[in-house]
Amino acid sequence: MNDREAFRQLVEQNKDKVVNTCFGFVHQKEDAEDIAQDVFIEAWLSYHKFRGEASLSTWLYRIAVNKSLDALRKQKTKKYIGLFKTLLQLGGEAVDKIKHTEPDPLQQIEQYEREQALYKALDKIPVNQRIAITLSKFEDLSMKEIAGVMETSESAVESLLSRAKVSLRKHLDDYYKNN
Amino acid sequence: MKINNHNEETEKTMQVLDALTKVKSSPFFITKLEARFDTKLEARNYSIQWKTSLKYAFFILIIAMNVFVSYSYIKGGKSTKDTRESMIQELSGTYFSNSSNSNSVTFQ
Predict the structure, then answer these.
(1) B15, B16, B26, B32: best to mutate for the A interface, most A CBs within 10 A
(2) Is residue B16 within 8 Å of A111, Cβ to Cβ?
(3) What is the C-alpha separation between A171 and A29, in angstroms, rounded?
(4) Residues A168, A84: contact at Cβ < 8 Å?
(5) Within a domain: residue B69?
């Protein structure tokens, strides 16, 4: 198997996981795909650094989390410039989802609005809690797997997840009170 | 009543957490990635070539400077010796013209 085929296989096996994880942080599919591409390029170029202590997917998740957090930091600096564009995209996505999906559009709108409220709350919680809950809820990873990605213990992950839920509930509560 | 409403909404939103929409990569994900990867590799190779040529240029410069310094040193050394010899000749001329013949000095 040559390098090109090996690379293709690595991407084929992990692309959805990586895109979904990145989406958990940036909440925009195009941005998530962009970051996922960076993840695979970095993974390939720094493959010699992979020591095999963790599984390949854990290593990829780790790169995906770091790349997503980097992208979020960059996004913050561009926040005001991109605000108008983001608003337009959100509107487009909402209409798109409703057009192409399930029979009950009202339920779809409600689901979409709740997801948006949840994403806003997710953006406000501390980074460690955010990583833990994103990997748990977007990727359905087990405590052990999350602990592997975050290089911490399972009990620490458990505590992070429960604190994340408390923080989310609080932010959502504030959000609905004000809206 | 209003409090109940927002509590209910919070609960419903928390339930969404367990049924989040999963995103899948677009069909041309790999094609786009490969194109990007090739561009990146090309840029990387170009920068490696550039760095290598810069390294060679630096080494050549260092060698050229060494040769120049050595040459200057050797040349400078010769001229100093010449200067020293002519000064000694001058001094000996002055010395022998002023002193008596019994005080002879031999230079080696």
Answers:
(1) B16
(2) yes
(3) 24
(4) no
(5) yes
The count of structural domains within chain B is 1
Selecting from B14, B24, B36 the residue whose C-beta is nearest the C-beta of A41 gives: B36
DSSP A157: H
Distance CA B41, CA B26 (A): 23
What does the pLDDT look like over A115-153, one tens digit per residue?
889 999 999 999 999 999 999 999 999 999 999 999 999
Tens-digit pLDDT profile for residues A40-89: 999 988 887 887 778 888 999 999 999 999 998 888 776 656 655 665 66
Range of the domain at A8: 1-77
CATH code, domain carrying A20: 1.10.1740.10
CA–CA gap between residue A47 and residue A158 (Å, rounded):
31
The residue whose two tokens read 């948006």 is: A116
